[in-house]
Amino acid sequence: MGKNNQGTIKDIQKISEEVYSVKIYAPTVDEILPGQYISILCEGLTFRRPFSVSDFDNHIITVLIKKRGKGTEYILSRKVGSSIEFSAPLGNVFSVENKKTLLIGAGIGAAPLFYLNKKLKELKVKTFFAAGFLSKDDIIVTPHPTLSRKGRGEYDFVSTDDGSNGNKGSICDYLEKLIAEFKPEKIVSCAPRPVLKIVAQTAQQHGLDCEICMEKVMACGIGVCRGCVIQLMQGDRVINKTVCKDGPVFNGKEVVWQ
Q1: pTM score, two decimals?
Q2: Which of 13, 35, 52, 204 is geometrically suited to a Cys-Cys bond with 111, CB 3.0 to 4.6 A?
Q3: What is the secondary structure of 128-185 as a DSSP string?
Q4: Pairwise CA distance, residues 126 & 121, whole Å
Q5: What is the second-level CATH architecture of the domain 3-90?
Q6: H/E element holding 38?
Q7: What would the CATH number be for the domain defined by 216-258?
Q8: CATH number, span 101-215
Q9: 76-80, 108-112, 121-125, 153-157: range with lowest mean pLDDT
């Protein structure tokens, strides 16, 4: 379990129509790994709000926040230089290994894949980062400008539901094409559950390793309230696991997709 930390807001930038990049200076945090998350204390609210880490470098934590309710409104109303309390690091991690990796994100689910992609590239692992959004206004600008490719940000492929960026449709519509052209050894995805289900099942059909990062409403953050339970198949039996404590990263082949 992560410990409580005091940090300082270093920067808040709008990076899409509804998403903001928030950088927090965290002197007491020495390490956060791809896949892990932090949980921020919001004034006047009982439960902390969890956010995937999209980058961590030299005690600077970057999280991507979509304005949704009182918690996110509170965080985004903070001024640069103000203090903020959070728990970190939380959750388990992606497997960083030397396997040709196809990254599949959708919407705000792309957040933790930025950090994973950065780490894989540092290790010279071949990656292909594909992401889907509702429209061009919703495309999340990369928080790693040094990795930008001709204005497309960090992505190698982007689709939008309305076709406003040129590739019309869900990112799931292009899965087979991406697998055929990139020929990955592994697929990693973070997205809404319907997308994760298709990604995991497609990976299994192709005999590919698959890791998924689950999006789920998480309240307590320690697996006690059981509000984020999912089912996994282990051997011949179904077991319950919590996304906040046992995840958020799981083997896509083990998740029971109902």
Answers
A1: 0.93
A2: 52
A3: EEEEEESSGGGPPPPS-GGG--TTSTT-SEEEETT-TTS-BS-GGGGHHHHHHHH--S
A4: 7
A5: Beta Barrel (2.40)
A6: strand 37-40
A7: 2.10.240
A8: 3.40.50.80
A9: 153-157
